[in-house]
Amino acid sequence: MKECEIYISAGQIAQKVEEIGKQLSRDFKDRNPLIISVLKGGFVFMADLVRSIDILCEMDFMAVSSYGNNANSCGKIEIIKDLDTNIASRNVIVVEDIIDSGNTLAHLLELLHERGAKSVTLVALLDKPARRQTEVNIDYLGFSVPDEFLVGYGLDYAEKYRNLKDICILNPKIYNK
Ligand code: IMP
Ligand code: MG
To answer: What's the pTM?
Structure first.
């Protein structure tokens, strides 16, 4: 059985990452942006993206977990690893792997605004619009994708497959076992 099938190849990803990097370099010149990766899924995209950016910038990392629709949590996020940086008056760029329901990101962006960021910009490699529950504005997008479970290039299924070079559709037989 084939575990997964290539949906976006490493070459296509590299080309798109280069494009977004160029745009960010142009749009954030002389603004010393703080680029934040949302762990863990965003780490591969972040690593490639920052190397296609050729202006001065800083980086930080954050890990959050969504309580989802748990009635007790009001859909808020739990911060598992917070930023080391004070973001007041900073131009913040959030780098995400995929926007699915949008719940996690909507809360995260709100939090960053509350902390006094001068601007908050969202870069997402993938967007799955069919699954959206909370509207989020994606400022720079790589690819819009169908409602399939994707793995690779940082994206996991049960913590596996993050190391695949391509973005692949996971065979449903794997998660319906
Ligand atoms: P949401 O937008 O709050 O639903 O959360 C998005 C998060 O769910 C992403 O950052 C991923 O970690 C995870 N996710 C959503 N769709 C997929 C997928 O197709 N493959 C792997 N992870 C996914
Ligand atoms: Mg993620």
So the answer is: 0.94
Which ligand 1 atom lies nearest to the CA of residue 103?
A: 3
CA of 30 to the centre of ligand 1 (A): 33
Which SS3 state, helix, strand or coil, does residue 66 take?
A: strand
| DSSP calls for 8-34 | E-HHHHHHHHHHHHHHHHHHTTTS--E
Contact 31, 56 (CB under 8 A): no
Query: Could you count the other beta carbons within 10 Å of the beta carbon of residue 68?
Result: 12
Share of residues in the chain with pLDDT > 70 (%): 94
- At 66, the pLDDT band (50, 70, 90 cuts) reads confident
Distance 124 CA to ligand 1 centre (A): 11
Average pLDDT of the residues in 124-129: 98
Return the structure tokens found at 53.
């950016």
Q: Report residue 142's pLDDT band, with 50, 70 and 90 as the boundaries.
A: very high
Q: Which of 30, 54, 60, 100 is catalytic?
A: 100
- According to DSSP, residue 110 is labeled H
Cβ < 6 A, ligand 1 pocket: 41, 66, 96-105, 149-151, 155-156
One-letter amino acid of 54: D
Provide the pLDDT for residue 121: 98
- Cα 154 to the chain's mean position, in Å? 10
